[in-house]
Amino acid sequence: MLRSMYSGVSGMKNFQTKLDVIGNNISNVNTVGYKKSTINFQDLLSQNMSSSGANPMQVGLGSSTASINVNHNAGSLMSTGVGTDLSIMGDGFFVVQDPKATAPAGQYLTRAGNFTVTAAGDLVTAQGYNVLDSGQNKINVSNFESFSINRSGEVVGKLANGNEQKISIGISTPENPAGLRKIGGSLYEMTNIASANGLNVQTATTANTEIGSGMLEMSNVDLTEEFTEMIIAQRGFQANSKTITTSDEILQEVMNLKR
C-alpha cells in the first residue's frame, strides 16, 4: 500500500482533534474563568530509504498530536456589582474544597469567582464547593453583621459589637499552571507537573496579586482567532482527504494494468 494514504489518514485524525479543541473553546466563549486550549502537531518516525548519499534519504510516515496545552492568559473583566463575585487580577487560583471529601482530598483550583453565600454562611462556588482561606479552612460569614471583600483578598466582617474581623481568601500559585488537569466545572486538579510542592495556599498579598470584588473574569477565548484556526483545520482536513483520494486513484490504475 502507498505510504501517502496512511500519512493522509494520520493528518485527517489530527485535524479532527484540532476541530474538537476549537469547538470546545467556542462553546466556552462565555464561561466564567475558562482558559482556552491549543493543539500542536509533530511528525512521525521517518523511514530511511537509503544511506548511500551525502544526506539521509527519508520519507515521513505522517503526523501525530504533540501536545494540547491550556493558555492561562487572563481574560477580560466584567463588572457585576455583586459583592461575592470575585476576580483574580494577576496570577493564582482560588482554592475550593468538596464538602463531601475530607481535606486534603477534594481540594481544587479555579479562576471562576462567581461565589455565593449559603444559608449557613459558607462562601461557596456554583457547585457548592467551599471557598477556602489561607489556612485551608472554609470561609464562613454567619457571625458578621455585614462584610465586604477588599483588593487584598480579605473578607472584612463587622461584628455586632462594632469590631472588625478579617479572613484572608486562599490563593494558590503553581509553578506551572499549564500542568494542571481540568476536571470540569471550571475546576483544576493539582498534579506533580504543575507543582512539585503540591497545593501551596497563601494570601493574595503573599502571592503578589489582587482580588477584584463585584467583577468576574470572563473566558480568554478570542472568536476571531478560533474561527481562523477553524478555517486552517478545515482546509488541512480537506487536503489530507485529497491525498487519500489521489492514492486511491493510483491504486486503481495499478489494478487496471491487468485488464
TrEMBL record:
Q: Name one Pfam family in it.
A: Flg_bb_rod
Designated name of the protein: Flagellar hook protein FlgE
Domain Flagellar basal body rod protein N-terminal stretches:
5-35
Q: Which GO terms describe its biological process?
A: bacterial-type flagellum-dependent swarming motility
Q: Where is it located?
A: Bacterial flagellum basal body
Q: Which SUPFAM superfamilies match?
A: Flagellar hook protein flgE (SSF117143)
Spell out the family assignment given in the record's similarity comment: Belongs to the flagella basal body rod proteins family.
| Record's keyword terms, sorted | Bacterial flagellum, Cell projection, Cilium, Flagellum
Q: Which InterPro entries match?
A: Flag_bb_rod_N, Flagellar_basal_body_rod_CS, Flagellar_FlgE/F/G, Flg_bb/hook_C_dom, FlgE/F/G-like, LlgE_F_G-like_D1
Transmembrane as a keyword of this entry, yes or no, is: no
Flagellar hook protein FlgE/F/G-like D1 domain mapped to chain residues: 88-156
What the protein does comes down to:
A flexible structure which links the flagellar filament to the drive apparatus in the basal body.
Looking at the record, the residues that make up the Flagellar basal-body/hook protein C-terminal domain are: 213-257
Q: What is the lineage of its organism?
A: Bacteria, Bacillati, Bacillota, Bacilli, Bacillales
**Coding gene?**
flgG
Q: Name one GO cellular component term.
A: cytosol
